[in-house]
Amino acid sequence: MEGNMAAVKRILAEGRADVNCRVKGLMCHWWTGSVTTPFTSPVMEEMWRRLTTSIDNTLHFACNGGDVETVEFVLSLNVVDINSRGVWSWTPVMTAAERGHREVVKLLVSEGADVSLVDVDGDNILHYAFIRGDVATVKFVLSLNVVDIDARNNIGLTAADMARLGGHKEVVKLLEPCFHVM
User: Domains in the chain: how many in total?
Assistant: First the structure.
C-alpha cells in the first residue's frame, strides 16, 4: 500500500506471498469493485503482471466490479486475452453484460471483444444481458447487430425466454417488433 517496489519484488521473489490468493489477495479488490488509486500504482502493476489463474482472471474480476478505469488499467497491462475463458467458459464481456455494466461492455467491444462466443451452456452475450434485465445493456448489445436474437442455448432457451423467466418485462418488450405472428 505504501508503494515500496523493492519490498514487493523481494517478497514475491522469496515466495512469501501468493498473488493468486482468492480470499485475502488482490483478486478480492477486483471482484468487489473496490479498486482505488493505490491499486493502479507501479507496485500493483508489478503484482498483476505476475498474477496467473486457471479460472477467472483479473479482467473477469475487473469486469464484474464494473469500474471502467479499472478495466482499462487491466487491459493496458497486455497480459490477459480480452476473449479469455473463465468459469463456465464465460468471457469478460459476458461477465460485464451479466452484471449490467454497459460502459464496460462498450469498452470491451471497442477493444475487440468477440460478442459471438458462447459459454459451456450455449449462452451468448445477449443471454447474459437479458438475464440481468438491464435495458441499456440489452439495447447496446442489440445495436451491434452481431448476435442472433433467436439463438438458443443448450436447453433451448433464447435470450427473450430467459428475460421472461426472470420477469424482465421491459427487456422483453424490446424484442416484440422482432417476432412475427403467423
Answer: 1
